[in-house]
Recover the amino acids of this structure.
């Protein structure tokens, strides 16, 4: 009897210990935060916790990263009683994105499950601070992420500027959707804008048995909708390791946002606890939203004071003319892209010569710092006849502002005055490429950097020709229109001659535009620019970068005056590498150099149909396709001089047919031919 009682007591004690361990394990597998005051999170880069418990991942700093991860990894491996893996998890969080500018987000955030919190080498902008262009797509990443993306990145195949995506080892989403939620009351989907500044709720649930990942989004005031935004079949057995961290990573790019997390719960193996909205911290007051009303009050007040002090209508008239702009009713739809002349005047310190960056065929360019955002910009002043096609011209400018590519100079906005147009671009601290190529007082570029710049410009032209919603003809590709950012990455700029047309349609251009030395022969005959004529200019640009000289240099020996013809003649002699810029000093990869030189010749073929497309050109430069053999003796390639001698007038001819020849004076080789 005593023995039986002892056995029963032993059994009950063992059961109690097992249940206690099970409860402890369950507690260790889940957490919930209503605000993060006192939370022991792993914060890195610019992430911080506000005194009221609000977790701020990023602020309005450009090109920055902010991360916050739970400090201990979760074990997606064995339970207390068996060795089976459990990959199921559930999480929910409340977030808000408050952009620096109302219509431009930057860049977004991602909930991530990763085997490590060491993201060495990760970059900001479209990579959210968790990957880079080299690591993106590697199976060894063992990364699962749900991205809340506010900028459309063509290289990552984003669907729009406000979407949710499911990412596995890569930031090219396996499935994505515009941000909407299902209203159970109205039985229909409702759209949301990530950068609205309002708090939103996200639920992420993975069922290992059904191998299904569900993502649901709704305003924070709503209960969880019955229908998820994304429901994706997904086998995570090869992605998830035994030990995985959970958390958030956010980044900014050329534009920035305050990205906040208000609350967060997580459960590995069961349903995450629901957040109590009433316990979440409040967002900071949006000061910027009050700027415009304040400005409307302050400006008339200041004007009235000036009138009283000056006691002169002349002073008032002079001040008005100083900041006078042209505004018409049809421009109201372009409000976010319109920047006041007063701001530009202050940004450039009155367009003083000290801020002058350079002069070109279209006008002067000034460096400036916008007072509203403290952002460095380049302001180009362009002469423009306001009576001729202004509405279409401004529409094209606004369209250019929507172009998004890492190798394009970003156009932020515009301003109009009488006879003058001001364009506001991203500031490129290292200036234009031709300064580093042709000016002896600056350090020369090594071959690796030149090859990277060539590939970058090729990628930008491919985006303009094929990957954007319309076909964009640049029509003035040359070294002086390629600008270098802080890391010496090449960005194609100066869209003063650009033209847009729909895919599948024929461009309506009738005037000869471009720069002598880069013009395709067919343009001089028909005046019509096509993607093939952009390819011709790019071919000349490639030779310009590789050879370190301009397309036409009249002071050289007659056989070397025209760059394309000289490279072609050297190729015929089997000495094409003799054209390489001597400043490279032989420090180059011969295979890459030969590809660039021969591809440059192929792109400058006088027959447009014989030139490769920009997609083919990118494939050749990336080594994903073999460059075809050049035609025998280069027939049909490049520009041909009238004779072996160049006259004092330095006349260059561009053969079109046996009975049709057009000529240009080399003295105009740096000018922009007129006509939009």
């Amino acid at each position: 009897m005593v023995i039986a009682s002892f056995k029963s007591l032993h059994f009950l004690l063992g059961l109690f210990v097992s249940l206690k361990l099970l409860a402890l394990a369950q507690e260790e597998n889940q957490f919930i935060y209503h605000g993060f005051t006192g939370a022991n999170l792993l914060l890195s880069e610019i992430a911080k916790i506000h005194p009221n418990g609000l977790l701020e991942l990023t602020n309005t700093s450009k090109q920055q990263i902010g991360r916050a991860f739970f400090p201990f990894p979760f074990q997606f491996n064995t339970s207390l009683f068996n060795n089976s893996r459990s990959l199921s998890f559930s999480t929910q969080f409340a977030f808000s994105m408050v952009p620096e500018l109302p219509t431009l987000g930057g860049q977004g955030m991602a909930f991530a499950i990763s085997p490590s919190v060491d993201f060495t080498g990760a970059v900001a902008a479209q990579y959210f601070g968790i990957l880079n262009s080299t690591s993106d797509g590697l199976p060894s990443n063992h990364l699962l992420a749900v991205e809340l993306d506010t900028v459309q990145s063509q290289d990552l195949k984003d669907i729009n500027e406000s979407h949710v995506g499911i990412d596995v080892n890569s930031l090219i989403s396996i499935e994505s959707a515009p941000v909407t939620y299902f209203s159970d009351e109205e039985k229909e989907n409702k759209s949301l804008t990530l950068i609205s500044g309002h708090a939103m709720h996200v639920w992420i649930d993975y069922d290992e048995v059904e191998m299904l990942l569900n993502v649901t989004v709704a305003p924070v005031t709503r209960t969880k909708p019955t229908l998820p935004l994304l429901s994706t079949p997904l086998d995570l057995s090869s992605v998830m390791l035994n030990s995985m961290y959970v958390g958030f990573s956010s980044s900014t790019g050329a534009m920035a946002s305050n990205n906040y997390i208000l609350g967060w719960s997580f459960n590995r193996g069961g349903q995450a606890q629901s957040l109590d909205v009433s316990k979440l911290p409040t967002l900071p007051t949006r000061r910027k939203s009050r700027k415009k009303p304040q400005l409307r009050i302050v400006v008339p007040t200041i004007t009235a004071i000036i009138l009283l002090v000056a006691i002169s209508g002349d002073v008032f008239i002079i001040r008005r003319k100083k900041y006078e702009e042209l505004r018409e009713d049809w421009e109201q739809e372009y409000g976010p892209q319109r920047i006041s002349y007063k701001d530009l005047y202050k940004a450039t310190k009155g367009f003083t010569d000290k801020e002058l960056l350079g002069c070109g065929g279209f006008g002067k360019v000034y460096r400036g710092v916008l007072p509203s955002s403290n952002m460095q910009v380049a302001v180009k002043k362009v002469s423009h006849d306001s009576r001729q096609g202004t509405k279409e011209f401004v529409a094209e400018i606004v369209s250019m502002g929507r172009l998004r590519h890492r190798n394009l100079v970003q156009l932020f906005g515009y301003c109009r005055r009488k006879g003058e147009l001001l364009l506001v671009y991203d500031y490129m601290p290292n200036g234009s490429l031709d300064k580093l190529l042709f000016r002896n007082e600056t350090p020369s570029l090594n071959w690796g950097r030149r090859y990277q710049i060539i590939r970058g410009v090729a990628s930008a032209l491919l985006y303009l020709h094929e990957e954007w919603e319309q076909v964009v003809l640049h029509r003035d590709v040359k070294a002086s229109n390629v600008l270098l950012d802080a890391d010496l990455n090449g960005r194609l700029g100066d869209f003063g001659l650009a033209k847009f047309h729909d895919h599948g349609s024929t461009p309506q251009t009738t005037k000869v535009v471009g720069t002598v030395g880069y013009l395709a022969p067919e343009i001089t005959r028909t005046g019509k620019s096509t993607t093939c004529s952009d390819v011709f200019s790019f071919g000349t640009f490639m030779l310009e970068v590789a050879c370190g000289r301009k397309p036409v240099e009249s002071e050289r020996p007659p056989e070397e005056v025209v760059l394309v013809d000289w490279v072609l003649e050297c190729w015929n002699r089997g000495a094409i590498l003799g054209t390489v810029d001597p400043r490279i000093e032989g420090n180059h990869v011969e295979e890459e150099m030969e590809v660039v030189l021969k591809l440059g010749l192929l792109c400058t073929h006088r027959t447009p149909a014989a030139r490769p497309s920009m997609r083919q050109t990118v494939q050749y430069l990336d080594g994903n396709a073999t460059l075809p053999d050049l035609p025998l003796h280069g027939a049909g390639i490049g520009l041909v001089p009238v004779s072996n001698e160049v006259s004092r007038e330095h006349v260059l001819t561009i053969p079109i047919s046996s009975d049709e020849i057009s000529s240009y004076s080399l003295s105009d080789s740096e000018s922009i031919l007129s006509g939009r």
In short: Residues 2-28 form the longest helix (27 residues). The longest strand covers residues 89-99.
